[in-house]
Structures are given as C-alpha cells and as structure tokens.
C-alpha cells in the first residue's frame, strides 16, 4: 500500500513541477508583539499573484516579474501593510518580513478594501466548513464567569450544545468523541473542567481557534466529524505584557515577553488559572461538594534564524471532586500534554513542520462506604497515553499548485482497570488494555485551473496495528484504510464563490459514554473484534461578502456513519476477564445526518458579531437498541443531541467605535448572546403497572425518541467598562446568564400516580398514570469580575 502511495506521490510531483522563477517569501507578523498572523492575504500589487500565510505566518509567491515590486499584506482587523522589493532578474529569491498594525486606521482607497474582501473569500486553498476565531472574538461571547473557548465554538451554526452543564461538541450530527481536538498539534482527549461548564483551555493563553465542521483536508485524520485546532500564543517578542482576571469563583494570570541569550532570541508565554469553590464552601458552608480545578499553559519559542524556528509548549490540568455524605466518593481527572515543534524552510518553495508531542488523559474514581470496623471500596481507572510524531511538508512549485504532504505516526496505549475489596470474583472486575500503532501518509494539492476554478484532490492512507493484551488469548490485527478527499470551487465574482466537497474519514478510538459527554466517560480502542468507524461527508456551499461590513455563508451537508459503537449495560454483570472482548461490551451501529447552516457576519457602526441558523436531522441505529416490538429489530432514532432548529445571535456594541463617545473616560461594551433550540428527544413510559404484592411499579418504555423536551431559550447580557493608559488597561464587568430566568429542562422524570387503595382491599396488577418532574439548567446567574492587562 505505502509503496504504491509513494510512487503516485513522485509521479504527481514530477508532473506539476514548474520552471525556476523569481520568488518572494517571508513572514507576516503583528507589529506590536511579533506574533505570526495566520491566513493573512499577501499579494503583488498590480498582478493576480498572491498567497495566504500558513499557521506559522509564512507565505511564498512564485513567478514574480522583475522591477520594483510592492508586496501587499491584508487581513481583517489589521491595517493594510506593504514592503517594496527590487527584483533584478527572474531567478532571484527574496525574503521579507511584513509587520501589520492592529490600529483601526481608515484604509485608503476602495480598491484596497475590495482586494481585502476578495482575498478573504477566494483563498488559495479551499476552506470547507471552516471558522477561525481569535482571542478577541472568543471574549465577545458571554459565558459563565469568564470567556471560554468551547462556549464560543458552541455558539456557531452547526454545533449543538447538549446542555448548560456540558461543553461536549456535537458537530453536524456527530457525537462528542468524533471531534479531533488539538492543542499545538497534539490530541487532547477530554477538554472539560467542572463537569463540562469550562473547557480546559485558558482563553488568555490561546492565540486562535480553528473549527473545521466537515470536509477537512487530508492532513487531518483519526476522527469522523470535525477538527478543533487550538494554537497557543507564542508570546510577545518585543515587550513584557500580561493580564490578570478575578471573578467570584476563579482567578487567572498570564504573562508573556521576549528573551535573548547571546545572539539567540525568542519569546515565552506562561498562564495559570484556578478556581476556589472549596474555599468559598469552607467560609460559607453552602453544602456543596469539595471541588476545584486548575490548569496551566507554557510555551517557549526560539527564533534561531529566518529558516529555523523552534518551540516547546506544555499544558497540565486537573479537576478534583470530593463527596462526603453518607458515603465518600473522590473523582479526579486531568490532561497533560507537550509539543515540540521545528519549522524549517529548505527553500522558498519547500516549508517543513515537524512535531514531536505527547498527551496523557486519566480519570480516577474511588468509592468508599464505612461498614463497622471495615470499609468497602471500589476503584476505577481509565488511562490514555499518546505519543505522536508528525512531519508535514508544503511545496509550492508554481502559482498553479500548492501541495501539502506528510507522514504521521501515533503510538496509543489505553488502559481500563477496576479493583475492589468487596467479596466479588476478581475475574468479573474489568481489565482492558490495548496498544495501537497508527501510521498515516497524506498528500493534497490545491490546483488553480484558470481564473475561476480551483480543485483540491487529496488522499490519506492509514495502517493501524492493534495489539490486544487482555484475556487468555491475546491477539493482534492490522487495519488498512484509504481516505480520499476532493473539493472543487468556482469563483462567481470578486467576493463570492460556490463549492462542493467530498471526504471519507476513519476513527480508531471510541468514547464509551452516555449521549451527554462527561469527564468520567471511558476511552476504548478498537481491537480485532471492533472495526474502525467510518464516515462520508458531502458538502455544498456558497460564500459571499456583501460589503466590508456584512458577509454571508450557507452550507448544505450530508454525512453517513458506519461501525458506530454504544455501551452494552448487560456487560456490568456478564463480563469475564479471561474470555471477554470489546465486542461483548459494545454494540455496533450506523447512522446519518443532514442539514443546512446559515451565517451572517457583521461589523458595522460599532456592532460586531454574527447570527447563525441551523436546520439539522440526525438518526442512529444500534444493535439491541430501540427495538421494534413486533419484529425485534433495531430502529433508527433521534439521539439526544439532535436539535431540528437552532438559532444563535452573538453581538457586541462598542460605544466608542459606534459613536466616538466615552463614559467617564472609558469605552463601554455591551455584549449579548442569545440561543434557541428545539427540544431534545427523550423516551417516555408507554405503560406503568402497579404491582400490589410488592408495592412497586413496573415501567415499560417505548422508543428512545418517543417524546421531546420543551424548546430551549436563553439570553445572556454583559456590560464592560474599559479604561486604557499607555501601560495598562482595567476592565471591570458585570454579566447576567439567563436574563429572563427561563426554566430550560435538563432532565425529566416520570412519577407514577399512586392509586387509592383501601386497607385490606385485594386487587390485581393494573396500569396507572404518571406526572412529570423536571430538573432545570442554569437559572438567572449574575457575575462580576475585573480584568487587568499590562
């Protein structure tokens, strides 16, 4: 398989190699900090030559004409910038650095504005279902206590929030484990704090977040639905700066700045956050469990030369929850990651990016009950270890082709173990450990066909070797999977285009959980009894910028799924370590989803944000689940995260930008976030019978989606006052979650109506009615806090 792939790669490279010509390459950087600017549009004035910067801020433009050349860089939110270059002959290579200022300066000339809008729409590569959010945009979404990466992503069309208490991402019908979540290139397996109210990423440490809701390119693999690619800040390369935040439940601090040693130089970034709910409980005795979490980000960059840049980043986070009521329960979970990166420019046409990284996720649960002189305990451990090496190459032989290729290797070890001192047969206490070696090769070409057409063929080949080490008969298996990708785009005008995309995706790891993701969900690999999951994406879209203030996107999608898994409850009392296999613990299934996403983006008279609408349908069918009472066969059902209609409105109004006015010398910022979603599917009892002999009730449920909860609706508001000086800024704020105190149903229980039975009356079993009892999501919650930046 790999030999055929390499031969095809060589043939393709030979075919598309262009003649030597002058090139201009370099970096686009933020002027005030030296941070690279991703997706900045770089072009040659007076020509159709241009290129976008990559995630490291690097660009290359081929076939440069001779003479005095003006290299122009544009990006929404930055001031137009340019550099003059003298090209004397057609074989020269020139390297430039372009620094862009964030200052809100009026762009001179309508042609520059039109060019900027055109570059934002008709990018060199085809970006399907792609949204990039900066730190500033993340902070505009009103969230509980503080800005949160996942809460900002959950406000986007096509992403379904399942509840206020979960930040699990359900993207276009995919479950939470079908998202590839990366932090500086390495997988993060459970990005949740506080049971899901906060994500593991501290917003102040994050430079940007890229969400690919489907149709993602060949360099990404291993998940079925989406990619969330989070990049940490490099750190300010020019001066020391920082930010401190304090709210009612948490505090955080971030500092960044430059470093130098002899002739070497670079930057650093350090960030730490912690909650103090356990201290509040100790002082006020609120009767809440003892809980806290903390997390930290660190990154150091070494700018050895313009050709070689190195970085090392680290993340650590931990949650600890103690219940001390009639029993003692301790739950602990956390993530640890590291990522070492080397960016090397072999030549202007060849860009290399090497990542050596690792990730560890663990969850532990301990349950103890006092029983006289002895205590009885139960322990559960889930461990995921990931070591990855990724080598990515970008090759731009000429203006018609932009080729990405690479090799990924991942070693994955998954352990699930249980232990107890109860009088229980040890053979029934589950122990599962599987190691996997996953090797992938990929190639993709963005091929410009004339002035209007661009095609983007790609292919990813994966070899997954699994070794099952548990049980009396360990076994290994090799899976080979091909994942073709193809996109095509037609430029309808200067600022609009239409496109189509197809892609196949595979997944080699599964999260065994309820349909609402939680930190205690268990990661299980595949083995020789469970095949990799598979999904096919079909996407049709249209994108336009109406003017510099308003943009509009619409996408229609269809996805199908094969080899989905769901936990079998029976395994709790059927499992045998000596003979059990994953296929005994998991049911297999399939499914599909389809829908439409609409998004209007605006930035006008101080009002910035977006309005999104999603029409979506998701169906699943799983063995031994949702059975037809007549045939006994499984039926398709709507999973809990299905919402037919979803509306999100996120807007921020700056009084200074809109009117030029200040209040007491400060800019006043009004933020609003509104969310509406149709009710989620749920099951309800078809019959409830009262059994007089035992005085109990027997519930008989129908289909899993036989009913729906009431619609969800929530309005959040915030008010910030921002004072700025030459050296610091102070921003106190107040925000209110669920302003109208809407009672959004979280869970619904069914309570039988007790029959009126006289004492001594002899009756037979009979059916009774029921009433409902609901628990609710967030009530109205006010928060106050202060942010200080220096």
Q: Could you explain how this protein is built, in words?
A:
With 790 residues, this protein is mainly beta. The chain is 7% helix and 57% strand. The chain is built from 8 helices and 47 strands. The chain has a 22-stranded antiparallel barrel. The longest helix is centred in the N-terminal third of the chain and has 15 residues, at 2-16. The radius of gyration is 28 Å and the shape is globular. The protein starts with a helix and ends with a strand. Mean pLDDT is 85; it is low at 9-19 and 105-117.
Concise account of the structure shown:
It is built from eight helices and 47 strands. With 790 residues, the chain is mainly beta.
Q: Average the pLDDT over all residues and give the rounded result.
A: 85
Proportion of beta-strand residues? over 45%
Rg, Cα atoms, Å:
28 Å
Considering DSSP H and I runs of 4 or more, what fraction of the residues is helical? under 10%
Q: What is the count of DSSP helices, taking H or I runs of 4+ residues?
A: 8
Give the biggest sheet: 22 strands, antiparallel, barrel
Q: Report the span from N to C terminus.
A: 55 Å
Global shape: globular
The counted number of beta strands is 47
Helix- and strand-based class? mainly beta
Regions with pLDDT < 50 over 5+ consecutive residues? 9-19, 105-117
């Amino acid at each position: 398989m790999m030999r055929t792939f390499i031969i095809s790669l060589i043939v393709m490279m030979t075919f598309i190699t262009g003649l030597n010509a002058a090139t201009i390459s370099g970096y686009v950087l933020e002027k005030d900090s030296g941070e690279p600017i991703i997706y900045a549009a770089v072009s040659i004035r007076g020509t159709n030559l241009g290129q976008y910067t990559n995630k490291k801020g690097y660009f290359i433009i081929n076939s440069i004409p001779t003479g005095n050349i003006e290299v122009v860089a544009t990006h929404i939110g930055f001031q137009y910038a340019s550099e003059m270059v003298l090209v004397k002959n057609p074989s020269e290579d020139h390297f430039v650095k372009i620094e862009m200022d964030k200052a809100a300066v009026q762009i001179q000339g309508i042609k520059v504005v039109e060019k900027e809008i055109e570059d934002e729409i008709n990018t060199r590569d085809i970006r399907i279902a792609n949204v990039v959010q900066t730190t500033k945009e993340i902070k505009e979404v009103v969230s509980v206590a503080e800005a949160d990466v996942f809460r900002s992503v959950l406000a986007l069309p096509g992403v379904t929030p399942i509840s206020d208490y979960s930040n699990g991402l359900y993207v276009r019908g995919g479950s939470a484990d079908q998202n590839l979540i990366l932090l500086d290139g390495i997988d993060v397996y459970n990005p949740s704090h506080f049971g899901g109210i906060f994500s593991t990423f501290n917003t102040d440490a994050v430079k940007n977040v890229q969400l690919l809701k489907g149709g993602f390119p060949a360099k990404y693999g291993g998940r079925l639905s989406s990619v969330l690619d989070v990049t940490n800040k490099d750190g300010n390369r020019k001066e020391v700066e920082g930010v401190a935040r304090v709210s009612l439940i948490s505090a955080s601090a971030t500092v960044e700045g430059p470093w130098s040693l002899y002739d070497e130089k670079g930057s650093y970034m350090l960030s730490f956050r912690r909650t103090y709910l356990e201290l509040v409980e100790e002082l006020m005795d609120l009767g809440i469990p003892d809980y806290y979490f903390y997390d930290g980000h660190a990154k150091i960059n070494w700018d050895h030369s313009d050709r070689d840049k190195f970085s090392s980043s680290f993340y650590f986070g931990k949650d600890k929850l103690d219940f001390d009521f009639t029993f003692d329960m301790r739950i602990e979970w956390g993530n640890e990651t590291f990522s070492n990166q080397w960016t090397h420019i072999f030549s202007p046409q060849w860009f290399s990016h090497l990542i050596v990284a690792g990730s560890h996720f663990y969850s532990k649960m301990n349950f103890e009950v006092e029983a006289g002189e002895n205590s009885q305990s139960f322990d559960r451990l889930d461990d995921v270890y990931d070591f990855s090496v990724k080598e990515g190459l970008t090759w731009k032989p000429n203006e018609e082709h932009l080729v990405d290729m690479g090799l990924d290797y991942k070693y994955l070890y998954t352990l699930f173990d249980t232990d107890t001192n109860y009088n229980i047969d040890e053979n029934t206490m589950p122990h599962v450990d599987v190691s996997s070696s996953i090797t992938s090769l990929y190639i993709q070409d963005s091929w410009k066909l004339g002035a209007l057409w661009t095609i983007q063929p790609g292919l990813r080949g994966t070899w997954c070797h699994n070794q099952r080490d548990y049980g009396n008969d360990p076994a290994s298996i090799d899976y080979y999977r091909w994942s073709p990708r193809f996109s095509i785009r037609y430029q309808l005008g200067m600022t609009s285009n239409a496109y189509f995309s197809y892609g196949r995706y595979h997944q080699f790891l599964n999260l065994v959980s309820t349909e609402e993701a939680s930190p205690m969900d268990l990661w299980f690999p595949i083995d020789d009894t469970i095949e990799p999951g598979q999904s096919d994406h079909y996407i049709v879209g249209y994108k336009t910028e109406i003017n510099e203030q308003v943009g509009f996107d619409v996408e229609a999608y269809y996805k199908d799924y094969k080899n989905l898994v769901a936990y079998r409850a029976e395994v709790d009392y059927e499992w045998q370590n000596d003979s059990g296999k994953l296929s005994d613990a998991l049911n297999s299934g399939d499914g599909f989803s389809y829908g439409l996403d609409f998004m209007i983006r605006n930035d006008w008279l101080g009002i910035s944000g977006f309005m999104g609408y999603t029409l979506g349908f998701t169906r699943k069918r799983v063995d031994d689940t949702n059975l037809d009472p007549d045939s006994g066969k499984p039926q398709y059902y709507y999973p809990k995260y299905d919402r037919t209609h979803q509306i999100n409105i996120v807007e921020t109004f700056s009084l200074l930008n809109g009117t030029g006015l200040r209040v007491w010398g400060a800019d006043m910022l009004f933020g609003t976030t509104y969310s509406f979603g149709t009710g989620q599917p749920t099951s309800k009892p078809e019959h409830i019978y009262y059994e007089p002999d035992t005085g109990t009730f027997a519930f008989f449920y129908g289909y899993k989606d036989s009913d729906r909860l009431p619609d969800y609706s929530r309005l959040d508001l915030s008010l910030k006052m921002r004072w700025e000086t030459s050296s610091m800024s102070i921003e106190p704020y107040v925000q209110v979650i669920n302003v109208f105190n809407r009672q959004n149903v979280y869970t619904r229980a069914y309570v039988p109506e007790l029959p009126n039975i006289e004492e001594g009356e002899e009756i037979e079993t009979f059916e009774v009615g029921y009433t409902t009892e609901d628990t609710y999501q967030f009530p109205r919650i006010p928060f106050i806090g202060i942010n200080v930046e220096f």
